[in-house]
Specification:
This protein is of the alpha+beta class. The chain has five domains: about 1-80 and about 465-510 and about 610-650, Triger factor/SurA peptide-binding fold, CATH 1.10.4030; about 120-225, Roll (Chitinase A, domain 3); about 230-335, Chitinase A, domain 3, CATH 3.10.50; about 370-450, no CATH class; about 515-605, Chitinase A, domain 3, CATH 3.10.50.40. It contains 25 helices and 21 strands. Strands 15, 16, 17, 18 and 19 form a five-stranded antiparallel β-sheet that branches. Strands 4-3-6-5 form a four-stranded antiparallel β-sheet. A four-stranded antiparallel β-sheet has the order 8-7-10-9. A hairpin with a 2-residue loop joins strand 12 (about 410) and strand 13 (about 415-420). Helix 14 (about 355-370) packs across helix 18. It is globular, with a radius of gyration of 34 Å. The two termini are about 40 Å apart. About 20% of the residues are buried. The model is unreliable at about 1-20 (pLDDT under 50).
Length: about 650
């Protein structure tokens, strides 16, 4: 009795201590949200957190809405929907990856990746395709074929010629490039290919090796130090992919004219706002994100080569043609490869997602076996599978119905992994298995199963071992079911409920109006002389905008742009204060450009029709549905906030 009383008192004491360490900020449906949980989410959403009453009150209101929706989703069983459970399991596996690797081996691979990023390899290859599940006969045939091609090259035939020849390389690009892959660095090829390329001397040809694509031989033709990271600006003259030859020729002439102007002293910052067709960079003087070694940002090769060819900051290139149009590139800043410390985190993530992570998992499993007292018991207990795995397995029709025992095959810690566990794995993982002797198949599948089972066992322990992993999984869980319930209750409902949407539109029709607009043709001119000439031509009502363009842009594509539209006056900066009237208006200047505007009609404010306002009305209807729904949730899911804990979050 005393012992039982002591245990109860001890349990209560532990609970009190834990509560003091991690007090409750709020309760929803009686479920606590602890200080640590709340802080983790709060800090994740606030780079510069504040702990004053107003800031915390505002955040708590948003947090309440989030938790109310999650509580309702759980109440309605969204977390039991098979497709959502499957989605969460997929995310859990991704989140678990960094915890299921050998940290020592992983550290080596991260450092290796950094060293490789510092060097770019140029290589050519020949590929003989082979399915990952090919039979031994087909595998041998592919190997013999790649060896025959290698011998032809070793006897003096040109690598590119062999790659291009009939029955040569099965990489489709080889017909154009002779197998030349250009320069590449770490992570830009599958890991086995990268490994072979970085370990083959320049001028040498590798032994055949296999990737998921088939058998390859690689010839390394060059190596160079990585070019580093560069930041540039560009002035782009767009060329539509389906544009006429005339449009393409006009774009090229315009780009060359602009290049000449820059070389003759005109300022970059003046020409880019006037002429660049890249809306994403034009307001920043054409500046683009940094790209090159150590970044995830990539440009098309011809653009990159032209950029890295610039040797000094401020230097500009001649017009460079890409699939998007013509670019004049200005170098802003170049940096060498960043130090390892600043790249380590990014490289860690890329290694974990790459094929090379399999190497770290193998050594990690070996350590788990040692830590958990692994014992193998499969000598006799695998015999049934070796005897009973027949040809039906390779066509997906094999079953283990004849298995009457369920003996252990191996044990870790206190858990046994049995024959029936292995049988389930065999049935689920029959696809793509080579037709081989049953003993070989069983041995290979057992090896794969054992590794997967041990990793899965460890994965199940992660939430208890690593609180940050548990928190991340909970975050993904809430996010998945929140998205689904919002789709059902708000987003999809608003778009599918056409009757409700039309009723909402009718009740709020005065909210959907066209502002005052001009139905007009706008002539944007390079200078005042051109504007005056355009205005003079337009006094003749028979002259079209096409004719004006042809005349004015005869010598330069930079002289004139023409736009026809119904312009919102308040939202169009160059029209806002121009006080324009119906008909041809006098030329005027705005922010360095000159405009001639011919107004066909002045459209006074008017109500929009349903078809014209549907997009905005749908968004408003979604907000209305969400607000109404939240009012209902507030009644059904009581929330209590512990103000004392909340307003002391900033105190340690």
């Amino acid at each position: 009795m005393k012992k039982a009383l002591f245990l109860v008192v001890s349990f209560i004491f532990v609970q009190v201590v834990n509560a003091q360490k991690d007090p409750v900020v709020m309760e929803i449906d009686g479920k606590p949200v602890t200080k640590s949980e709340f802080l983790q989410i709060y800090l994740k959403n606030n780079n510069s957190p504040k702990y004053d009453k107003q800031t915390l009150d505002e955040y708590v209101e948003m947090f309440k809405k989030f938790k109310l929706k999650v509580a309702e989703a759980e109440k309605l069983g969204y977390d039991t929907i098979p497709k959502l459970k499957k989605e969460l399991e997929g995310y859990k596996r991704q989140l678990a990856t960094p915890y299921l690797i050998d940290s020592v081996e992983n550290k080596y691979l991260v450092e290796q990746a950094y060293e490789r990023i510092k060097t770019e390899i140029r290589a050519s290859h020949i590929l003989v395709k082979i399915d990952p599940a090919a039979t031994p006969k087909d595998t041998l045939a592919a190997y013999n074929r790649i060896m025959a091609l290698k011998k032809r090259i070793e006897k003096g035939e040109d690598f590119a010629s062999v790659a291009k020849m009939k029955n040569g390389s099965e990489d489709p690009s080889a017909l154009n490039n002779g197998g030349d892959l250009g320069f590449f660095t770490a992570f830009q090829m599958v890991y086995p290919f990268e490994e072979k390329a970085y370990t083959t001397p320049i001028g040498s040809i590798s032994e055949p090796f296999r990737t998921r694509f088939g058998y390859h031989i690689v010839k390394v033709t060059d190596k160079r130090p990585a070019r580093g990271t560069i930041k540039v600006a560009h002035l782009m003259i767009a060329v539509p992919k389906d544009g006429t030859q005339e449009a393409k020729d006009n774009a090229e002439r315009k780009a060359n004219e602009l290049y000449d102007k820059l070389k003759n002293g005109e300022k970059w910052e003046d020409l880019v706002p006037l002429h660049s067709d890249d809306p994403g960079s034009v307001k920043k003087g054409g500046e683009l994100p940094a790209f090159g070694s150590g970044t995830t940002q990539r440009m098309v090769p011809v653009f990159e080569d032209a950029a890295f060819a610039l040797k000094n900051d401020g230097e500009i290139s001649k017009p460079v043609k890409t699939e998007y149009g013509y670019h004049i590139i200005k170098r802003l800043e170049w940096k060498d490869i960043p130090p390892y410390a600043s790249m380590k985190k990014e490289l860690q993530g890329r290694v974990n997602k790459d094929d090379r992570s399999k190497k770290t998992q193998d050594s990690f499993v070996s350590k788990l076996k040692k830590n958990y007292g692994y014992k193998f018991a499969g000598e006799k207990n695998l015999k049934w599978f070796e005897k009973n795995l027949d040809s039906t397995y390779f066509i997906g029709k094999w079953t283990a119905n004849g298995l009457t025992s369920n003996k252990a095959l191996f044990k870790i810690a206190s858990k046994s992994f049995t024959q029936k566990d292995f049988a389930d794995y065999l049935v689920k993982n029959a696809r793509g298995i080579k037709r081989e002797d049953s003993k070989v198949v069983v041995a290979n599948q057992y090896k794969n199963w054992e590794k997967a089972a041990i990793l899965q066992y460890e994965e199940q322990l992660l939430p208890s071992k690593y609180p940050e992993f548990k928190a991340l999984v909970n975050e993904y869980h809430d996010g998945i079911i929140l998205y689904e319930i919002m789709s059902d209750k708000v987003w999809n409902k608003a778009s599918k409920d056409t009757v409700g949407l039309k009723e909402f539109f009718a009740q709020n029709r005065d909210n959907y109006k066209w502002p005052k607009r001009l139905d007009a043709t706008v002539y944007e001119c390079l200078n005042k002389q051109i504007a005056d000439k355009v205005a003079g031509m337009l006094k003749n009502d028979t002259i079209t905008s096409k004719h004006v363009l042809e005349v004015i842009n005869k010598d330069s594509e930079l002289n004139l742009k023409v736009r026809m539209n119904k312009f919102d006056i308040e939202q169009t900066s160059f029209l806002k204060s121009a006080n324009l009237k119906k008909g041809l208006n006098a030329a005027y200047e705005f922010e360095g450009k000159f405009y001639v505007v011919k107004v066909t009609d002045v459209l006074e404010p008017m109500r929009k029709e349903y078809s014209e306002a549907k997009g905005v009305a749908t968004s408003d209807y979604q907000n209305f549905l969400e607000k109404t729904w939240l009012e209902e949730l507030t009644k059904n899911h009581p929330i209590k906030v512990n103000s004392e804990v909340l307003y002391n979050l900033g105190n340690k």
